[in-house]
Amino acid sequence: MKLIGTLYYKLVSNRIFHYLFIGFLTTAISFGTFWLLYFYAAVPPNVANIISVFLAVIFAYVANKIVVFKSSFANIKVLLPEVLRFILSRGLSVTFEIAGVYLFIEILNLEALLSKALISIFILILNYLMFRFYVFRGQLPHH
What we know:
- The protein is mostly helical.
- It is 82% helix and 0% strand.
C-alpha cells in the first residue's frame, strides 16, 4: 500500500498532471460553451468558437497561475509582466485555434466539433510549452 500511496502522491503533486487536469477543465469550458452557443443558441460556429475560446482563456490564466505554476501575486511589478506574457502567448495560440477551426470547417469541410477537437490537441501542447517556459518562468516551485 505504501507504494500506491507514493505513486499517488507523485502523480497528484506532478505539475504536468495538474496542467492536464486544468487543461481538461479549460477544454470542457471551451467545448461546453461552444456546444451551448452553437446547438442551443444557433450562434454561427466561428462566432461560438471565438466566445468559447475567450471564456476558456480567462479560466486558464487564473487556474494555471494558482494551481499549476503556483505563481505568486507578490506585487504589480511581478503580476503585470506575467499577465502581458500570458496575453501575448494566448493571443498566439488563440489565433492558431481560431484559424485552425476555420480552416477545418470552411476549407476541409470537417464537422464543427471534430474541427475543434483536432485543433485543441495542438493548442494544449503549445500552451503548456509557452506557460512553462515563457509566461510563468522563474515562478516554478521546486519538487
